[in-house]
Amino acid sequence: MKMLNISHVVNMQHDVFKENKELAAKNKKKLQEAGVFSVNIMGAIGSGKTTLIEEAIKALKGKYKIAVIAGDVIADMDASRFVRLGVTTIPANTGKECHLDAHLVEHSLSEINLKDYDVLFIENVGNLICPTDFDLGEDMKIVVVSVSEGDDIILKHPVIFKTSELAVINKIDIAEAVGVDPATMVRDINFLNPKIPVLLTSKKDPKTVEQWVDVIEKGILSKKQGK
């Protein structure tokens, strides 16, 4: 299965945010025309983003054609995990940047024939701050946090929860061991954004993994139906 490597340099003489917004709109149009459901999965290092994507791939790859953009300062490590699952993977190395941007995603999209795919997972760089400023043209923004980050992690990073369409509280199986109450985290998310759905997940609990996969599949089907 192919793995492509993309890197870029940002010219700081340009209006970065304006240019990013324009490129994000172009990306969105490309994905819309191809009928590809795309998700931008954000979260800190260790939150479990990669594992959640892996679980979705395992559950869905027999029914849908999947591609992944694996963003990181050095992306090959996580990218190799997706390649082992037999899906097309584009490592998007950001260098010193702590986020993906629409320009880098645009280059990544040019490396594949979008019409060959049903869903695109975009794993953003491990950070809860920088990705909030850069739309990528995705259909859904998902923020993932782990109970191991502490139950005050939500209120410390309000913007990402206010701008995401789904929040995932991960690794709930270790909540008691780390002295964190997931209910407190849910309460804080609802305080910041009353409209956002919240999932509580654990790789060790198949029911929660099924709920996670169901969200992705519903997005795929909705996109196919033109909704």
What tags apply to this protein structure?
227 residues; single chain; 8-stranded parallel sheet; alpha/beta
Describe this structure in words.
The chain has 227 residues and is an alpha/beta fold. 38% of the residues lie in helices and 20% in strands. The protein is built from 8 helices and 8 strands, in the order E-H-E-H-E-H-E-H-E-E-H-H-E-H-E-H. It has helices at residues 16-34, 49-60, 76-83, 102-109, 153-156, 158-163, 182-192, 206-224, and strands at 6-7, 37-43, 66-72, 88-93, 119-126, 140-146, 166-170, 198-200. Strands 1-4-3-5-2-6-7-8 form an 8-stranded parallel sheet, with helices on both faces. Helix 3 (76-83) links the parallel strand 3 and strand 4 (88-93). Helix 1 runs parallel beside helix 4 and helix 2 (49-60) crosses helix 8. The chain is globular, with a radius of gyration of 17 Å. It starts with 5 loop residues before the first strand and ends with a helix. Residues 6-13 have low confidence and may be disordered.
Provide a concise account of the structure shown:
By secondary structure, the chain is of the alpha/beta class. The protein has helices spanning 16-34, 49-60, 76-83, 102-109, 153-156, 158-163, 182-192, 206-224; strands at 6-7, 37-43, 66-72, 88-93, 119-126, 140-146, 166-170, 198-200.
What sort of overall outline do the alpha carbons produce when their principal axes are compared?
A: globular
H/E element sequence: EHEHEHEHEEHHEHEH
What proportion of the residues is helical, as a percent range? Answer: 25-40%
- Physical arrangement of strands within the biggest beta sheet: 1-4-3-5-2-6-7-8
The assigned structural class equals alpha/beta
How many H/I helical runs? 8
Radius of gyration: 17 Å
Approximate strand percentage: 15-25%
Q: How would you characterize the largest beta sheet?
A: 8 strands, parallel
